[in-house]
Design goal:
By secondary structure, the protein is an alpha/beta fold. It has a single domain, classed as 3-Layer(aba) Sandwich (Rossmann fold). 45% of the residues lie in helices and 16% in strands. A 7-stranded parallel sheet has the order 3-2-1-4-5-6-7, with helices on both faces. The termini are far apart.
């Protein structure tokens, strides 16, 4: 049985990946989460996964690092502001969670993967790793950096049997997106949450946002593939960047 570590386990995408890994019966699963003890307890009850409560904004050392599979799904998007309005706290927190934490996790898990000459790392990025967007600068910076990490590690560790890839979704029907919509209403940028979400859906050629299942399906493919696919970013975006 393979051992898998998934970060952001109480987020919509991370939770779906854990449930899909569990459904295969092939994985002993550990997941990281930050605050939501109730959601973590339910996930443990449903899947038998082991929870780790780790603050990704701070340097950390894993209790163990002998994982065959690492999925970096944890992410934050704090505010929607112009670059000159971004606070130091937002900048440091976003980069810490979205970029520094995946680097630290890879750094700690790679020696075991190298030793056994097998590993699968999947980073959950965003279409904003591939393009710019107004009022999104810290998030975009972090996701561009994550793609650089993905491609660099793919080069460095392919000879050890370690495949490193990225999934880049468009907007996802998720708890994070609900928070973003609420923030836009509070700032007077939209009349209602539904209006904002409908506008996001309409901007995607497929006419809808991605579901967590769409993102997880791509991650599961990259986890279970032969390992000859490495260094790629798979858009799961309904044609948004086509």
């Amino acid at each position: 049985m393979r051992r898998a570590l998934v970060t952001g386990g109480t987020g919509s995408i991370g939770e779906q990946i854990i449930r899909d890994l569990h459904a295969t019966s092939d994985y002993d699963i550990t997941f990281q989460y930050g605050r939501d003890d109730e959601a973590a307890s339910k996930l443990v009850s449903d899947t038998g996964a082991t929870p780790w409560k780790i603050d990704l904004t701070q340097p950390f050392e894993l209790e163990r690092s002998d994982f065959d599979v690492l999925v970096n799904s944890a992410a934050v998007l704090m505010t929607k502001t112009l670059a000159h309005e971004v606070s130091e706290h937002e900048l440091l927190t976003t980069i810490a969670v979205n970029l520094f934490a995946p680097f630290r996790l890879c750094q700690q898990c790679l020696p075991f993967m190298m030793e056994q000459r097998f590993g699968r790392i999947v980073n959950i990025g965003s279409i904003y790793a591939e393009r710019g967007c107004s009022e999104n600068v810290t998030y975009n910076m972090s996701k561009h950096g994550l793609l650089g990490l993905t491609r660099s590690l793919a080069h460095e560790y392919a000879s050890f049997g370690v495949a490193v890839n990225q999934v880049d979704p468009s907007a996802v029907e998720s708890r994070m997106m609900d928070r973003i919509a609420s923030g836009n209403v509070e700032r007077g940028h939209s009349q209602s949450v539904d209006d904002y979400l409908d506008g996001v859906r309409a901007a995607i050629p497929a006419g809808r946002m991605a579901n967590p299942e769409d993102v997880s399906a791509a991650a599961m493919f990259l986890i279970r593939q032969s390992g000859f696919i490495t260094g790629v970013a798979v858009p799961v975006d309904g044609g948004a960047i086509a």
